UniProtKB/TrEMBL annotation:
Family matches, as PROSITE patterns: UPF0001
Record InterPro entries: Ala_racemase_N, PLP-binding_barrel, PyrdxlP_homeostasis
Species, as recorded: Blautia argi
Similarity section: Belongs to the pyridoxal phosphate-binding protein YggS/PROSC family.
UniProt-recorded name of the protein: Pyridoxal phosphate homeostasis protein
Known role: Pyridoxal 5'-phosphate (PLP)-binding protein, which is involved in PLP homeostasis.
Keywords: Pyridoxal phosphate
Lineage of the species this protein comes from: Bacteria, Bacillati, Bacillota, Clostridia, Lachnospirales
Length: 231
């Protein structure tokens, strides 16, 4: 199957998951995760109207952003080091992976230099996996309050990377917990903090994530096929 066929198949599954959850499919943004994939594969999807792409590495995002259509909305979904912020802050429409005040301060500073406001998500390690980045759930509200006072940065919601599993049902509770956490934070009515975005769910479990309230799902393998990690 072609990349376009794969995308349409995933899109149909998104629609079906929304139906099961009684949601409008327009509430869900499907991010095509193009890390390690060539520009030609991204270009195949553009005629379908696909504009949301996700990258894990700053260098890859910036190189692709310089070559491809300015209409593309780039999502920085990988771990972001503070010394790389300056390269990505004016190219990513959303930084999904903020997990410390120091990183947020750097984003605020660099966004200010470029006279823009950066949209970010707090990355929460809901499952408590030691191999994953992200803050513990109980740290999310205090961190949101600290970041809220910074200029040139806005918290739009939460992101999590659930454990790899053969059975997506195993991750349902993690998605449910992230949704509950976002509701709790939203009820605090913190200035500069909205909880409109829930970035959760990947190739193996995005349908369950949508059923539990995901607004953004990040699908790479399901669209582009297996990744080439030797690049």
């Amino acid at each position: 199957m072609s990349v376009c066929d794969n995308y349409k198949s995933v899109e149909e599954k998104v629609i079906q998951a929304c139906k099961r959850a009684g949601r409008d499919p327009s509430e869900v943004t499907l991010i095509a995760v193009s890390k390690t994939k060539p520009i030609s594969m991204i270009e195949e999807l553009l005629p379908l109207g696909v504009r949301d792409f996700g990258e894990n590495k700053v260098q890859e995002l910036t190189e692709k952003a310089e070559i491809l259509s300015p209409e593309i909305r780039w999502h920085m979904i990988g771990h972001l080091q503070r010394n790389k912020v300056k390269y990505v802050v004016d190219k990513a429409c959303l930084i999904h992976s903020v997990d410390s005040l120091r990183l947020a301060e750097e984003i605020s500073k660099e966004a200010g230099k470029k006279n823009r406001t950066a949209s970010v998500l707090l990355e929460v390690n809901v499952a408590g996996e030691e191999s994953k980045f992200g803050i513990a759930p109980e740290e999310a509200l205090p961190l949101a309050k600290e970041i809220a006072g910074l200029p040139h940065i806005q918290i739009k919601g939460l992101m999590t990377i659930a454990p790899y599993t053969e059975d997506p049902e195993n991750n349902r509770n993690f998605f449910r917990d992230l949704r509950k956490l976002s509701v709790d934070i939203a009820q605090e009515n913190i200035d500069n903090v909205t909880m409109n975005v829930l970035s959760m769910g990947m190739t193996g479990d995005y349908e369950v994530a949508i059923e539990e309230g995901a607004t953004h799902v990040r699908v790479g393998t399901g669209i582009f096929g297996e990744r080439n990690y030797s690049i």
